[in-house]
Amino acid sequence: FPLCAAVTIPDNAIFDTLITAGAGIMGNYLCQDEPPLLRAIRVGRGPGLLSKVEKLLSVSSKEMIVYQQWPEYYGLGMITVTHMAVQRGLVDILNLLLQQISPPGSKSIPPYLHQSYLLRAAQYNQTQVAKTLLTEWDGMRRMEGLNPDMMV
In this structure, is the dihedral angle defined by the CA atoms of residues 52, 24, 118 and 106, taken in order, positive or negative? Predict the structure, then answer.
């Protein structure tokens, strides 16, 4: 783990591990317990939140050039912050993040992530988030000719 010694990973805390391993490497935040992007999505409020998240994403994607040897940690970080957006019902931010974690050359996120986000939306009763995810899932399914029975 290319992490600063100041970052602690609590025992049996998979979510915290994702945050420190994944989100911790987004941008130059290796010695902080919680990176700014994750914090903004976890506690941010108000109409300025979307532009703040856009700025933080821009910074982290530029700084990722330095961390090309660890793209899997960046991916874990994106998955972590997207789960947080789902949990909080932040549909506009969710759409922004989904664009970031789509496979290169594609407009859709991998099906296993859709399932994960849908389950989390259901867990936190985020109806609008679930509708957004299902709309994109349906479009992806039609585009790729997937069997409708493959839906969650």
Answer: positive
Within a domain: 3: no
In a domain, 2, yes or no: no
Task: Tell me what pLDDT residue 92 has.
Answer: 92
Entry pTM:
0.64
Is residue 120 assigned to a domain? yes
Q: Could you give the dihedral angle defined by the CA atoms of residues 104, 105, 108 and 113, in that order, rounded to the nearest 10 degrees?
A: -20
Q: How far apart are CA 49 and CA 9, in angstroms?
A: 28
> The dihedral of CA 134, 100, 126, 80: what is its sign?
positive
| pLDDT, tens only, 89-98 | 999 998 888 8
Q: Which domain holds residue 104?
A: 14-150
What is the rounded CA–CA span in Å between residue 27 and residue 144?
A: 34
Cβ neighbours for 55, distance < 8 A, ≥ 6 positions apart: none
Q: How many domains does the chain have?
A: 1
DSSP-assigned letter for residue 26 = S
Distance of CA 98 to the CA centre of its chain: 7
Inside any domain, residue 35: yes
